[in-house]
Write a structure and sequence with these properties.
The structure is a single chain. With 145 residues, the protein is mainly alpha-helical. It has one domain: Four Helix Bundle (Hemerythrin (Met), subunit A) (Up-down Bundle), CATH 1.20.120. The protein contains 5 helices and no strands. Helix 1 runs antiparallel to helix 2. The longest helix has 33 residues.
Length: 145
Amino acid sequence: MHEIAAFGTQLIEAHQWLREELARLREDLGAGGRPADLRAHCLAFCSALTRHHTGEDAVAFPALAERHPELRPVLAQLEEDHQLVADILRRISALDGSDPKAALAELDGLTAIMESHFAFEERKIVAALDALDLPEWRPYLEPTP
């Protein structure tokens, strides 16, 4: 059962890492970081966040919806959030670094949405994730060497 329970834990750990990366990105921008460094950091963060949400939408949410139909409205809301986040990430990626205030405003909006989204997701689906037994997920749950 250890592998199964680990998926909910891994979700929380992924959220914590993303929170820390977003905070570091905002801090770098607020401290007047160089546009090239900020752009590289932002692109790495945006890519990681996009992969996280894409994986949820493609694998985790359909599995949860199939096994827990009562969660479908929650999952639909989470997918809507993913679209809002994707829109903000596109705007952030399009920034050229010449307007740090605009970038900080986008990051502030992203921070607000992400914190609300992560807290809602953790409250609503972690227990259901922990209860899933999906053999195809086991390779992702095993500790890396």
